Automatic annotation (TrEMBL):
This is MFS transporter. It is found in: Cell membrane. Pfam families: MFS_1. GO terms for molecular function: transmembrane transporter activity. The keyword Transmembrane applies. PROSITE patterns: MFS. The chain crosses the membrane at residues 15-39, 45-68, 80-98, 142-164, 170-190, 211-232, 247-265, 277-295, 301-319, 331-354, 360-383. Gene3D superfamilies: MFS general substrate transporter like domains. The lineage of its organism: Bacteria, Pseudomonadati, Pseudomonadota, Betaproteobacteria, Burkholderiales. Residues 14-388 form the Major facilitator superfamily (MFS) profile domain. Keywords: Cell membrane, Membrane, Transmembrane, Transmembrane helix. It is a multi-pass membrane protein. GO terms for cellular component: plasma membrane. InterPro entries: MFS (IPR011701), MFS_dom (IPR020846), MFS_Efflux_Transporters (IPR050189), MFS_trans_sf (IPR036259).
């Protein structure tokens, strides 16, 4: 299939709107991380069991993402993005009303179906706006929504959950989803959609060994990231003895330093995607390991979390752009396959982290994550030996 032509209008303003939407979407996905302790107490379940809601979300994204994105790739982008935000509003309202774990699990399935459609098409749209030479920077601007969610959305949601309960936090997120849907409808111009292309034709990228290797590398990277991040709030409470009312502020600091990682990742990934991946994986290993070793000292803990936060946030756009660059003729599908790969890693990370807590205690999750991050850095060197198609 031929690549879609680069889009000139509506320019950079559309990227800003997409970043705002990304903020809401990432906050919806990861708010659960900050609410795990309170949610587990309220529903009478263990933190490890509640943590599997993160796994459920990730598995749904992984399984259904590529098929849904390929099937909807011909829809107008504005209409598609608005529909995604409306689905997020409904699902957050259902989560707020959930009387038990099963209804809450169902409420997580709806946004999990819509999330990969957004990320695949939003990344592709931003890359088309900017052109191939600046695709990395454009996608990193959309991914500022991730940094914004970690800086404000997730921590403030955690604080709101402490003040008004975890249900109140989901109600606030439902209202915000509606507001952003209205913003998209009012401000984002209609954009040309691609022609309908069969899933089989788009799936030809899976025949490329380098593309498949890049996708597998993303699985490993995100497994490393989320073996620790899924249980970060619990780590701060139990290992570092941070008072529950202050955990949200620590998570906000984690997100704040992530802004630097997002900027650095966007600048460097266009030059050398694999080297940038390896470098940030090494930094991730240092930060996660140091968080455990320095947990007794809040000054040392803050420094370790800063290193972890920079690497963690940088790897989102780095992995997305690396995979999209290896499949230039089907970037929307490639971006969504990477999102599925990332969510496979998120699911594995939540499982691995939960198993390590059950077997060796809360201190183990940072060390296990650091070891996997080192493997990912080695994996990036191995992928570099595979010749692109």
């Amino acid at each position: 299939m031929s690549p879609l032509p680069a889009v000139r209008p509506p320019g950079q303003s559309s990227i800003v709107v997409l970043a705002i939407a990304a903020f809401v979407i990432v906050t919806t996905e990861f708010l659960m991380v900050g609410l795990l302790p309170a949610l587990s107490r309220d529903l009478g379940i263990s933190v490890v069991t509640a943590g599997q809601l993160v796994t459920l979300f990730a598995v749904v994204v992984m399984v259904f993402g590529p098929v849904l994105t390929a099937s909807l790739s011909h829809f107008g982008r504005k209409r598609l993005f608005v529909a995604v935000l409306l689905l997020f509003a409904v699902s957050n309202a259902v989560a707020a009303l959930a009387p038990n774990l099963w209804v809450l699990a169902f409420a997580r399935i709806v946004p999990a179906l819509a999330l990969p459609v957004f990320w695949g098409t939003a990344s592709d749209t931003a890359a088309r706006i900017a052109g191939p030479e600046r695709a990395g920077r454009a996608v990193s601007r959309v991914y500022l929504g991730i940094s914004g969610a970690m800086l404000f959305g997730i921590p403030l949601g955690t604080l709101a959950g402490d003040l008004i309960g975890w249900r109140g936090a989901f109600w606030l997120l439902a209202a915000l989803s509606l507001l952003v849907a209205a913003l998209l409808h009012q401000t984002m111009p209609a954009m040309a959609s691609g022609e309908r292309v069969s899933l089989a034709e788009q799936a030809r990228i899976l025949r490329c060994p380098r593309f498949v290797a890049d996708v597998l590398l993303s699985v490993l990277v995100f497994t490393a990231m989320f073996s620790g991040y899924t249980y970060l709030a619990e780590t701060l409470e139990r290992l570092a003895q941070v008072p529950a009312a202050q955990v949200g502020w620590w998570l906000m600091g984690f997100g704040a330093v992530g802004l630097a990682g997002n900027w650095l990742g966007g600048r460097w990934v266009d030059r050398s995607p694999l080297a940038t991946t390896a470098g940030f994986c090494l930094l991730l290993a240092v930060g996660m390991g140091a968080t455990v070793l320095l947990a007794a000292s809040h000054a040392g803990l803050a420094l370790a979390l800063a290193v972890w936060g920079v690497a963690n946030t940088a790897l989102y756009p780095v992995c997305q752009i690396r995979v999209m660059k290896s499949a230039a003729r089907a970037q929307a599908l490639a971006g969504t396959i990477n999102v599925s790969a990332a969510n496979a890693g998120i699911a594995l990370g939540a499982i691995v982290g939960g198993l390590s807590i059950s077997s060796w205690g809360i201190a183990s999750v940072g060390l296990v994550g650091a070891a996997i991050a080192l493997l990912a850095a080695l994996g990036a060197a191995w992928v570099g030996r595979i010749r692109p198609a």
